[in-house]
Amino acid sequence: MPDPYVESLRRGFKSRDIPGSCSIVIFGATGDLTHRKLVPALYNLFLNGELPDSFKIIGFARRDKNDQIWRSELEESNRNNSRSGHDEEKWNEFSKSLFYFRGDLNSEESFSDLKKCIMVHETKGPTFHNRLFYLSTAPDFFPVVLENLKKAQLNLSPKKGWSRVIIEKPFGSNLGTAQNLNRIVNDTFHESDTYRIDHYLGKETAQNIMVLRFANSIFEPLWRSRFIDHVQITCAEHLGMEGGRGAYYDKAGAARDMVQNHLLQLLSLIAMEPPTDLSANSVRDEKVKVLRTIRGMGPEEVRKNVIRAQYTEGTLGGKTVPSYRDEARVDPKSMTESYVAMRLFIDNWRWEGTPFYIRMGKRLPTKATEISLHLKSPPNVLFQKLPGSTESNVLTIRIQPDEGMSVRMLSKKPGTTFKIEPVEMNFDYWSSFKKGSPEAYERLLIDAMIGDATLFARRDEVENAWLFIDSIQDSWHKSNTAIPMSYYESGTWGPIEADNLLAELGHEWRPL
Ligand code: BG6
């Protein structure tokens, strides 16, 4: 049996492969994620010839359906959600590999029947024993699915096959629940066969952060507190609590829903040291070091450095939208934040003293995720009397929607007088590569099939991220009155307190 750790090191040096034949079992086959993201992603991989010659997608759910009904429901949603459109003929070819399995997540018997079903598929066509289990159910079911997979011995693949698990977010709701889930996961699957999804890591520009930093000599020498004044990470959404999300969200809030995972992952990629190689473990070793060095906060630091807020009624896209507390399935007295902004520090050699500002909010004027690194100004001895000369250089990485990067610098404005103006050097994916980027789920699904966990969160990453978020949550809950809730009108850029947070150190949020 090859050592999984050595295997993963070896994989880090390999170029991309087409994965071997496999069965993909989706738990939560009738859910929104399966319809909007997973099946369209698999269909697009199929269109691009990236799926193995033989693959079976088995949808596990409780409702009474058959292959035909499930296929036609998926076809309908694929039409609306496939990135590169829907081709009738290709879909018919692809959908021959979709199978519906009616089962009960709580029933051991369902899992032994599932095993038989998988084995029947495995013997049709080229024989293979590779199995990928995708947990896309409500998180309360994760433990029971894992336990039942283990009881049916589906966590062990016979012969030379593999058995892997992908786990959707949220991975726990605090450190304790995440540790519990990790214990169950690691009791069932080896860590190297465990793929904790954070779909932001599958976004093209997020993957490009390492290339930008470590393949270009122009940026890396500047990438430290000596030259960088501060860093901003913004994730803005115009969505509120559509589709009945209020029930989940009101228990989670912005810090748990998006900061613990997506934003801290982006922060780790920005702040990490160069890994020793590109293997999953080397990259994740460096990311986890960042998470471990984020300065912890007690109630007093939380009060000074973290702003929480809720949206009030306002206008967005020409429509009036309700306040957070008036949303369906949200407690009218809720103290859950739909917006969070914070200033944090990374106590390591590279980043000593550099503020990192993070903000995330629902019902903001636009949907965009962006990282900006604001460089320190040069000695201001030559141009200080000229207008415009105080602007600093800014490197911006646009994660979405308009993927790309830009550098802001100062230039002399053409003319007979000496005026300085900021200009932008811009790179966008579309004009350079003339093609759209794959959806995050395409990349992540194929990686899990190949066995490359680089873009998935490791156990210690998830737990360290929770440790930090828990310190904020604890302060909020213990000092509910001492740490106030701020408010912002829907369709605006968040509460004034978030602007003041930056103004304290002479900074401003970069307009998106
Ligand atoms: C999810 C959060 O993880 O990410 C949602 O639960 C959020 O609240 C979503 O809307 C944003 O993802 P994306 O890819 O649309 O930016």
Can you put this structure into words, describing what you see?
The protein is of the alpha/beta class. The chain has 2 domains: 4-168, NAD(P)-binding Rossmann-like Domain (Rossmann fold, 3-Layer(aba) Sandwich), CATH 3.40.50; 201-438 and 460-503, Dihydrodipicolinate Reductase, domain 2, CATH 3.30.360.10. Helix content is 37%, strand content 20%. It has 16 helices and 17 strands. It has helices at 4-11, 32-47, 67-81, 88-95, 108-123, 142-151, 175-188, 204-214, 246-252, 254-271, 280-293, 299-305, 429-433, 440-450, 459-478, 496-503, and strands spanning 22-27, 55-61, 98-102, 131-135, 163-167, 194-196, 228-236, 306-312, 314-316, 319-321, 339-344, 356-361, 368-375, 394-400, 404-412, 420-428, 486-489. The site of 6-O-phosphono-beta-D-glucopyranose has 6 residues, from helix 10. Residues 169, 199, 237, 239, 257-258 line the site of 6-O-phosphono-beta-D-glucopyranose (BG6).
Summarize the model shown.
By secondary structure, the protein is an alpha/beta fold. The chain has 2 domains: 165 residues, 3-Layer(aba) Sandwich (Rossmann fold), CATH 3.40.50.720; 282 residues, Dihydrodipicolinate Reductase, domain 2 (2-Layer Sandwich). The chain is built from 16 helices and 17 strands.
Key traits:
Rossmann fold; globular; Dihydrodipicolinate Reductase, domain 2; 512 residues; single chain; alpha/beta; binds 6-O-phosphono-beta-D-glucopyranose; 9-stranded mixed sheet
- Form type: globular
Low-confidence stretches: 1-6, 8-15
> Count of DSSP E strands?
17
Count of domain modules = 2
The overall pLDDT, averaged over residues, is 93
> Helix count, per DSSP?
16
Main β-sheet, in a few words? 9 strands, mixed
User: Termini, distance in Å?
Assistant: 51 Å
Category from helices, strands and their pairing: alpha/beta
